[in-house]
Amino acid sequence: MKFKTLAILTILPILFFTACDSKSDKNQKPTIINSAEKQFSLNTINNSQINISLNQDKIILKDINNKIVLLNFFTTWCPACKVEISNLVQIQEAYKNDIVVVGILLEEFKTNEEINELLNYTVTNSGEAFELAKSLGGIKAIPTTFLIDKHGTFFQKYTGLVPNEMLE
After folding, report:
1. Burial (Cβ within 10 Å: 0-12, 13-18, ≥19) of residue 45
2. Centroid of chain to Cα 166
3. pLDDT in tens, 68-78
4. CA pair distance 74, 67, nearest whole angstrom
5. What is the DSSP string of 101-149?
6. Which residue among 21, 48, 55, 88 is least crowded, i.e. fewest CB within 10 A of its CB?
7. Angle CA(149)–CA(135)–CA(165) in degrees, nearest 5?
């Protein structure tokens, strides 16, 4: 009985803190498909738009100037994504002058009201999010977060749940 309890207590955290996929591609640079510039205009849950441009090794969010961007691909059904949302809320609040968190929902048929709970950062709810993910070489696990510097240069890719200490 003790072995069973110990096994369960060991396995549960491992499952909880991994991404919602079995493949791991941590810290790999995104492969931007096609070197020609691509434009994406994603609708947000606040009825505005985020304009994203992909050009060779740059991921440029046109309406965000001189800030570091955390571009987070997530779904609402993924347990690791749900936990990471609270981490991203804390990061956005603590570093709102230097960092912008942008959530890219990779899920269909969700209303903006369902997504808007407890978020203090921009979240997109747009069918074009799937095209953006595909243009970045495909998102193979969720959550996946791209850290982009102030000039639009890809800096780091995180796959799975990322603790706040690591992002800080």
Report:
1. buried
2. 15
3. 999 999 998 89
4. 21
5. EEEEE--SS--HHHH-TT--SEEE--THHHHHHHHTT---SSSEEEEE-
6. 48
7. 35
Q: Tokens 């977060």 identify what position?
A: 145
Query: Does the predicted model carry a pTM greater than 0.90?
Result: no
pLDDT tens-place string over residues 83-124: 898 889 999 999 989 999 999 999 888 888 877 766 778 899
CB of 92 closer than 8 Å to CB of 81: no
Q: How far apart are CA 27 and CA 110, in angstroms?
A: 30
Pairing of strands 144-148, 38-43: unpaired
Hey, what amino acid is at 34?
Answer: N
| Candidate from 16-30, 51-65, 99-113, 151-165 with smallest mean pLDDT | 16-30
- Residue 16: pLDDT band (50, 70, 90) is very low
Tell me how long the chain is.
168
CA 76 to chain centre: 12
